[in-house]
Amino acid sequence: MEHLGNAIVQGVLTGGLYAMFAIGLALIFGIMRLVNIAHGDLIVLAAYVALIVTQTLGLNPLLALGIVIPIMAVVGYGLQRGLFNRAMGTDVMPSLLVSFGLSVIIQNGLLMLFSADNKRLQAGALEVASVTLSDTISIGLLPSLQLVLAILVIIGLQFLLYRTAIGRAFRAVSDDPRIAQLMGLNNRHVFGLAMALSCAIVALAGVLLAIRANFDPATGPTRLIFGFEAVIIGGLTSFWGTLAGGIILGVVQSVASSFDPGWQILAGHIAFLIVLAVRPNGLFGRVA
Amino acid sequence: MKTSEMPAFAATTPLSRRDALRTAALGLTALTAAGYVGRAVAASPIRIGFVSPQTGPIAAFGSADEFVVNEIRKTIGDGITINGTKYPIEILVRDSQSNPSRAAEVAAELITKDKANLMVASSTSDTTNPVSDQCELNGVPCITTDTPWEAWFFGRGGEPAKGFDWTYHFFWGGAQVVQTFTGLWNSIETNKVVGTLWSNDPDGVALSDAQKGLPPAFTKAGYKIVDTGLFTPLSNDFSAQIAKLKAAQAEIVTGVFLPPDFATFWAQCGQQGYRPKAATVAKALLFPSSIEALGDRGAGLSSEEWWSPDHPFKSGLTGQSAAELCDTFSKATGKQWVQPIGFKHAVLEVALDFSSAPKRSRIPSRSWTRSRRPTINRSSVR
Fold first, then answer.
1. CB contact, 8 Å: A145 with chain B?
2. Is B242 part of any domain?
3. Which residue, A25, A53, A95, B147, has most beta carbons within 10 Å?
4. Helix A2-32 crosses helix B239-247 at what angle (to 10 degrees)?
């Protein structure tokens, strides 16, 4: 029984990681109906930016966030204004294809620049620090930090969306881009800000991933798939749903793996398919 | 016991290179193509395709490639003489990116486009197996090394009675790993409970095999196995396995990992408060760079060692001893020696011997393979 307890605790913590991957995706999809296939690669890009920053300045990876987040936000704004905005419209396909192309470009660009070698951000004692609750349950500090940050990001986003002017603008362009434009909003700029925000979250996810595990230019898609699944389980546009989706995925994987490690990944995918079959709108999705 | 107090030594149990080579008998049944390579192409150059992982999760295995190949090129100079004719040698180096599909792709390209006369592949089954399969398929002789022979032979569906026609392999196997690992563990006080984790790739599958792999041999050596099974490479989470090892009070942990997986696993071990007395892991910990990536927590880990400056062998090509080879490497690259130097050098030596029958070599692989060459007639290599 205690084992199951540990599996659930560790699963919840892994869920924090998945949620962190997923929040940026959900944000972009919610505001501009853009399915960003390059999201995972942007996470890896952020990890490499962090690698350069930590190596050249000798900073702790968490402090380096102060530099990586603004860089990625600028990259995000630039990508949206220079690339995605040109493909936006009533049809979601063109922008999806653009993001697919971007994914390929980022992966191969990183491959050329950094080779396929594995890299990792060193965060010293934080990597293995933990709190022991009982004989079988220890909670790692880093995974907990990840979960807490994911929750803080969601709280921050909720506040931003529902309490601020820019949040109102985000919701307005999401609800009806034409009317929003008539009301004097510059949709292109608003979309750009949304992507900047998404990429800022991506930077956080990337740095945390890079402390937790090794990464290479091809890491993005394998990590992204869990983010996608979390978003869909959670219901596409709900941030809390996304967190719940990530946690469900993490717990299912971890519990299955406590029976047989071979089932870990498979069980997560099966849980995702079941949710998709039973509730196509996700667990917390608004029914259209 | 803290990890830092764990005995920090590498394998010293008798796993000599000769033993290792001897066990690799299975694949190496017919090194016949020797003279034919030269004859078939007359005075045009002999092309040797060289596939190895130079980038990707196991890039460390290929870190000595450039050095070794350059040294061999220097030694060969403008070619080797076979029956009075001088043949230039071209070594075509390709990167498998640690990826089996990529390995197959570059092998096929080397065979069909570059018209390689002979193929050489090394370093883990993800590279050696697909390259060997391509060669078997296309009827090109291929010599591989630096993959446990079971993973190479059984991983490719080999049948001991039949063997393969075109592909040959030399390296150690599971029996030597067991000998070495248990030799290490016997030197410290433990409860003899061994937790195992296996990467779900041909190396992990072959070595975890319940009949032919390591587990039955560990049991025979008096150790109790707690098997956590195969895990998907590049996993995010090993907490289930760690919980199982903790519950079973495994004081020793072993298995097959890719370097990044071991990094994730070992960090989680730290978080979960699991501190085995010995962690002896195949594949992931063979290189200074893999240990450096683990920071302070890399100290006290152990791994198999199959080549070192102290191995008492000389190159049949250059006459250099193992120590001299390592010195040259350190001078040329500014890096510490790595184990693949010896085997990459040896595999190219075998390849060159293969191409030039009259040229004698004293490297162990040489005399050994020669004595086992059966007399099969084949009219042409390609």
1. no
2. yes
3. B147
4. 170
What's the ipTM?
0.78
Which of B305, B339, B357 is the endpoint of a domain?
Answer: B305
Coil vs helix vs strand at A263:
helix
User: Tell me, what amino acid is at A137?
Assistant: I
Half-sphere exposure of A49 (CA within 13 A, CB side): 29
CB atoms within 10 A of CB B210: 9
- In chain B, which residue's Cα lies nearest the Cα of A217? B56
pLDDT in tens, B166-195: 899 999 988 889 999 999 999 999 999 999
Q: Is residue B139 located within the same domain as residue B287?
A: no
Min distance A228 CA to chain B CA atoms (Å): 16
Contacts (Cβ under 8 Å, ≥6 apart) of B219: B225
Q: Are residues B13 and B161 in the same domain?
A: yes
DSSP class of residue A285 equals: P
Q: Judge whether B380 lies within some domain.
A: no
Q: How many domains does chain B have?
A: 2
A128:B271 CB<8 A: yes
Paired tokens of A159: 């506040």
Give the residue among A286, A281, A30, A34 at the shortest CA–CA distance from A162: A30
Distance from CA of A139 to the nearest CA of B (A): 7
**Under an 8 A CB cutoff, do B260 and A17 touch?**
no
- Both B248 and B314 in one domain: the answer is no
Which structural domains are found in chain A, ordered by start? 2-114+141-278 (1.10.3470)
